Automatic annotation (TrEMBL):
Lineage: Bacteria, Bacillati, Bacillota, Clostridia, Lachnospirales
Coiled-coil spans in chain: none
PANTHER family listed in its UniProt record: ABC TRANSPORTER ATP-BINDING PROTEIN ALBC-RELATED (PTHR42939:SF1)
Protein known as: ABC transporter ATP-binding protein
Pfam families, sorted: ABC_tran
Amino acid sequence: MKIECRNLKKNYKAKEVLQGVNLTLEKGKIYGLIGRNGAGKTMLLSILSAQNPVSSGQLLLDGEPIWENAEALSHIYFAREIITSANSNSGGLKVKEYLNMAASYLPHWDKEMAERLVKLFHLEPKQRLIKLSKGMVSMLGAVTALASKADFTFLDEPVSGLDVVAREQFYQLLLEEFTETGRTFVISTHIIEEAADIFEEVIFLHHGKIILKENTQELLEETVYVSGRAETVDAVIQGKEIYKPKTLGRSKSVLVRLQEGEILNQKEGITIQPVNLQKIFVSLCREEENV
Ligand SMILES: Nc1ncnc2c1ncn2[C@@H]1O[C@H](COP(=O)(O)OP(=O)(O)OP(=O)(O)O)[C@@H](O)[C@H]1O
């Protein structure tokens, strides 16, 4: 099973929110969707789940269009941010009512799992959503996403507002569910490092374009930070794929993307260090923005 997007574009008046996204999401993977504020993450997830029409391009599940296709949509669920303000549709609902509503439109809903997770997260079924704390609202979203049992489940910043204990608990549950079922999860988050071990692949979205989609482990193993005397750094990185160098006086630092099996020669006057995902993301954004 796979979802494919071909040259997806979304415009709002003159603004191109998605600028030709090509993406394949395979069954049985956890993807991390990373992007700056306004990059288009929520938009992409809402389009992938057919909650929003595209301006152009194709969106397919196993070769069949997803838009207005009930069978395809029964395999996809997007747990978007729950709006609980007084004038929203959800705000006045009780936790129990919100979950009953989800159960009514999600064809593979696991009632027993939802009840178990509600207890685990100490959510009170009779409490109205408007009275929940920000973290509790996030937990309710996580419960809905997990209990949806959709083959492709998208979560928009599921851990925002959760305390560290609850965040670990959420990722643990997610991994257990993933291991048991082989469902696909796409998770957007700004807390990159914490989730880096969970994501099999990372997708970096920048100004409505995918600037990187890679296996997380390979990306980390094959990217190094080189710093030291500028002329030595230049000699070592010659002919290599690099991300946005920084020069300060006579010293220089740069991220180098190695090819499989490629190594850098250690020379006096430079250091070669491993990097984390956050650093790679920041460097790539700087590269794109040319700053
Ligand atoms: N209904 C709309 N009308 C016009 N522009 C919109 C609409 N919805 C989203 N946008 C624009 O689309 C762009 C992408 O928004 P989106 O919410 O997808 O970003 P995001 O990556 O999820 O950001 P964040 O991390 O801040 O949540 C933004 O520039 C936003 O202003």
